[in-house]
Amino acid sequence: MIPSAETKITYIGDGKTKIFPFAFKYNDAADVKVAIYDILNDVTKVIKKDYYVDTVANVVKYPGYPPGQEAPQNEQPPVLTKNWKIVVYRETPISQEIDLGDKYPLELLENMHDKPIMILQEILEMLNRCVMASIGSATTAEEMIEAIHNDRLSANASASHAENMRDEAAKSATDANLSAKDSAQYAQQSYNSSNEAKQWADESKAYSVIALSYSKAADTSATMAAGSADIAAIHNASAEKYKELAKSWAEDEASPDNMYDSKSPTKKTQSSRTWSFNAKDFSLSAQQASDNALGAAQQCQGIVDNALTILRESLNPKAHVVVRLEDGRVVELQYVVDSTTGKIYPANNIFVGEAAPPDGANLWIKLTN
User: Which of 88, 131, 266, 307 is 20 to 30 Å from 157 at the Cα level?
Assistant: First the structure.
């Protein structure tokens, strides 16, 4: 006979109680189970040790042990306090192991007992697929359904939010990818611009060197041109002197140089024969010097890089004039001293030119490129 449908009983700890009675019927002491429920954390734990089922008094002792098998005090769990519950319940195996034999009607009777066991097993299988509160929890089925519903709504909202975040993350990733591509393009453009700037700087440096060379060459040419102009001025003055002297021999009534002339009736050089012999040479020399001076002046104005050519053309080898440039002025040399031998060469015995000198020159200053 089973007069009560009760299969469990729950107690709240008080810090001192260790014995918990139960009234439900059971077949074996092993069918009586014990669970500890943590009220604060809503967690139930089925324990396998540290309790004892007294089948005589129908009580569970926790912590408790069979007589003579007590654990040391420091190894026993503490007595339950108010934040803990202890649940004593029955868990009977759903099976029927009695065999009545094959005689009629024993087999029919056995089948009658087997059928409800099979039904119970099927119900147990369905219950194992259900959501249930833990055995120590005070949560009702309605509260669990409402909690599940609220959790579903919260989960849906979280899923929707996660989907939005995923879309935003995908968009951000796309934007970041585009930005990365733009950055790479800008970096390449910057690199190309840097190379072009370096090339322009190198070219500018080369042009600066060339310009400096041209500037130095222009200064040198200008200096040489100035010297050539001074030389040309000297020859021009000589030409004017010879021109005036020739004119005097041709036109003056008195002796041009007041020198003695044994062939002249006045014993002075006033004879037309003397003028005729000298005027021709003077006139040719004056004309040549004048042409050279004019050519030197014209070439100095237009072509400074040909100053050396002007110098060569303006010099008259027969004039025996040697000059040097001193503080921007042209000074006529009277003689030249050989620094090796100490020998002195008068200016009228010095020849300046590219070709070999005529007979009578003691020193040849050769002009080369």
Answer: 131
**Interatomic CA distance for residues 296 and 313, integer angstroms:** 8
Q: Which residues of the chain have pLDDT under 70?
A: 187, 190, 193-194, 197, 200-201, 203-204, 206-215, 217-233, 235-236, 238-239, 242-243, 246, 249-250, 271-290, 292-326, 328-331, 358-364, 367-369
Give the bridge partners for 269, in sequence order: none
323 forms beta bridges with 332
Decide if 322 contacts 335 (C-beta within 8 A). Answer: no
d(CA 317, CA 271): 31
Closest CA to 64 of 77, 74, 45: 77
C-beta of residue 44 within 8 angstroms of C-beta of residue 134: yes
User: What's residue 92's pLDDT?
Assistant: 93
Instruction: Read off the tokens for 258.
Output: 């007041």
